[in-house]
Design brief:
Number of helices: 6
Order of helices and strands: HEEEHHHEHH
Radius of gyration: 15 Å
Distance between the termini: 27 Å
Strand content: 15-25%
Length: 109
Amino acid sequence: MRFEELGFEMPELQVRFVVQGRTYFVYYFWHGVRKIGEFDGEIKYTRAEVMAGRDVVGVVLDEKNRENILRPEVKSFTRWGWDLAYNSRAFGQFLIEQGVPRAGRRRAG
């Protein structure tokens, strides 16, 4: 996985959060720093079967509302897409700037 390749701690995958009686799954979760990471591809904005009858605006608003519900549950929430993930140098720098922990290092506090 890209995180390991770049020397970052591996996140937990598909972590379940129950907030306000609803269940949400997040792509990546770094438990030690209470950070959610979400990968945004274009499929959820362009494929009818994923959009479930919503237009693009509806999909974006649903994602925004989901993120707003999850944010109080963690210390931080970060998103990225393919362009960034494909560029090793840029993605590594982005992860550093976003506070993703490095592998093998313990964070204080």
